Structures are given as C-alpha cells and as structure tokens.
Amino acid sequence: MFKKILIANRGEIAVRIIRTCREMGVRTVALYDASDRESLHVRLADECVQLPDHHAFMDVERVLAIAREQGADAIHPGYGFLAENAMFIHACDAAGIAFIGPPAEVIEAVNTKIGALDKARAAGFPTVTYSRRSFSEDEFDALAADAAAIGYPLVVKSCRGGRGRGERLVNDPERLLEVVRRARAEARAIYGRNELYIEKAILPAHQVGVQIVADRHGDLVHLGDREGSIIHSNQKIVEEAPALCLSPERREALLETAVRLARLFNYQNVGTIEFLVDAAGDFYFTEIKARIQIDHTLAEMTTRIDLVREQIRLAAGERLGYGQADVDIRGCAIMCRLQAEDPSRRYLPSPGHLRRVRLPGGPEVRVDTYLYCDSEVPPFYDPLIAKVTVWATDRTAAIDRLRRALEDFAIVGAPTNLPLLMTILRAPDFVSGSYATDFLRESPVAKPATDIELLRRDLAVAAAILHARRHEAFVPEVPEQWATGWHRTSRHIQ
Fold first, then answer.
1. Catalytic residues, which ones?
2. Domain check: are 194 and 224 in the same one?
3. Of the residues 267, 372, 427, 480, which has the fewest C-beta atoms closer than 10 A?
4. Residue-number span of the structural domain to which 66 is assigned
C-alpha cells in the first residue's frame, strides 16, 4: 500500500480523498494556490504546497516535481485537471510514481470519443448516430454537411474531456455556426483543444451511467445504474440511483452491456459507462468516463462501497476481492449539486467570502464540501461548492429527506442555485419521475429571478447577517498543547 499520496486537485473532491486516505493510514500532500490558502483541503492534509497560480494544476512537470520533492509514491488526480491526461500518466510511470486511476492505454482508448464509439460500434454495441470524423476550426463547411446528413436536432461535442464542457444542442442549421463557435471557445479554454464532432440528438432522452470497478487481474463488477437527466448549463445538477427510465428487463440488459463494454476496453480501476435511453427504452452507448465522477456518491450510498478506497487499493495492485453476487444494491439515493451561481445574473459564477455556513445533517444525509464559516469561494474554478446526497428505502422518502436537508442549508456571502434545486424537487414531473433531459429547457423553474424575488433574497441575506453578528460566540484561543489536526499549527504548509 502507498505511504503518501499527492492530491492533484482541490475543493470537495480533495477533501473527499483526504478523508479516505486518513482512514487508510496514508499521508496526504495537498496543492493550493493563493486564493485557496484557507480552503478545507489545505487544513486537512498532512502537508501542503502552494502553486504559483491556478493554472499550475495542469502543469505536468511541476506536479510531478512536487510529488518527488514531498516523497509521494502515488498521485490521485480527482476529476478534471489531469485526471484523464494520458501524457501525465506516462510521465508518472516514467517517474516511478503510481497514478490512481486507469492506465494510460485505457485513457488513450476511451478519451478519443470518436475512436471509442468506432470500437464499440465495430463490436456490435448500439451507439448514438455520430459523425465518423472530427472537425477542426477551418472545417465548418464539412461539419455543416455532416450535420445535414445526420439531421437536426443534433449535439455539437468536444472530442476531449467530459462534464458537458464544449457541448451544445442545436435545433436548426441557422444556429449551427453560432453554436459551433461557442462550443469551440469553451473546449479550447477547458481542454486546450477545440476539435468537435456531432451526434444525432435523442429527444426526449435519459442520461444513464453505470458505475464500474475493475482490477488489473481481470475481475470486474458494476455497482448499479444512475440517472442524470436534470441538466442546467450543461451540468447534471440532480441525479438519482437507480434510474427511473428502465424496466427490470432493460436494466438487466443495460448493466450487462456496460460490463461487456468495460471488458472490450480492458477497463481498470473506477469509471462510468454512459448511455442515452430513448422514450421507447432503447439504450445507446455514448462514452466512458475514465475517472471518479462527481456523482460517485450515489453508488457509494446504495452499495456502501468506498470508491476512493477502491481506487487506491486497485492502483496499488490489489485484487478486487469480491464478485458481482457480493454487491448489494439497496434503496434509492438522490444527489444535488450546490453551485455558487447567481440566479439574477443568468446563473453566472458568484465567488465571494462566506460569512456564514450551516450544513445539513441527520440520518442518511451526506454533504461533500470544502465550505465552512469565513471561507472563500475562489473565482478561478468550477462553481461547485457542495454536493448533498441522501439515501432512503424508497424514492418518495429520499425526496422528502433531500428537501429537508436543503432547507437546513444556510450560506451567507455568495448567491447559490439552492432556490433552483428546491424548485426542482417540488416540480410535479420530478416527483412523479416523468422527466427527461429536456426538463429544464421546457420548464420555467430555471428562469432568472424577478425583481421582487431578488428583493426578498437580499432582505433574507441582510437578516441572516444581522442575526449572525448579534449571536457571535466568543471562541477562546486554543493552547498550543491542545492543538489538533484542525489547527494550522499542526500542519506543515509551505
């Protein structure tokens, strides 16, 4: 087993990884920039190293140099940044530092989305209809010709990465040029590459993922399915497990297909096989997410398997140690993404100083976050600030529990999408389960707030600040000899 792991990430996923490492007795090294100096992952890690700026999270040579200097024998990339960078994995291998994730050859096979679709299609798996080639910036005419041949509506997608970045729906040829320009700009900003391809849009559709866990010895299991069809700004913001759109027969067939696809790509470690499901219940392979995902908490809640622990174990060469019959999938889990986004500004990111934070709790309520009172939401990163995941024996109870948990949430200092999440959980189509990926496009729940709503919000924020100031408790200074892992004095920060 590893002795020290460098976490090449930040925010809630870094906190998540640190906590499992501490349970396993593995020391951790955190990376941070100046804007993140007071972040929770910095406080929790055993050692911390400051980066020159937020761009350095993508600097392969610098991250590896820090790992060597700190004596780390493994690197956990989390998601985003270097998580699916095959060049980085090759560099880790050359440096004798373990990469906690799939090997480079798996990343190379699945990260080129067209290549992955081609391989699945050639093996007889059902895939979405897609362009058989990618298009560079000077090939708009060729892209438009393929779009006409495939037919509208369609989806313009980046050839790299995931999480909805560089992805746009287009309903008619008149908007194609504008959509392509926006998709290219976002893809270039996120991935450094702007090649695009196109897929036939399935409307209405359901986005369903299957969690896969596999070792390097040929053992592989799935941990069930989950649905992420509530999408806002190309991000899944409410997800649940199991998927509602699948009959028992379709679920069995989809899970079997996911396992076969994982074996086709010789998948190792933790990942997700993604599908689109149409109104008739037919499913189509779209891509493989070769990393731990934001919504991994759903599989953890329904199986009680720690996926970060599995990632670390499997990267260290351990066998899976259990088979499909040993995986007990129970109940219903629902997760929502709390984002620092301002409803009054079309949900633009809203960084700021958090004057007050109150996190929900209670039975079967899980909060993954880096927030605490007097913490900062930096302006340089994804607006995700917390995930709330609940579990219950049935979906109705899970919805009730999640509503209560969100009502318990209090954040003063930065606008969030909390009102949107609450509205979704009360929407009749969500409660009944009769929703698809067009839910927020067809629903008024995501519209910007009105003037009166903004006034009410501002008054509520002002009242909360006044209340907090009137009820601030005196916190005595902790003597040095009583200092614990929470206190800065017990941590080595460079």
1. 291
2. no
3. 480
4. 4-100
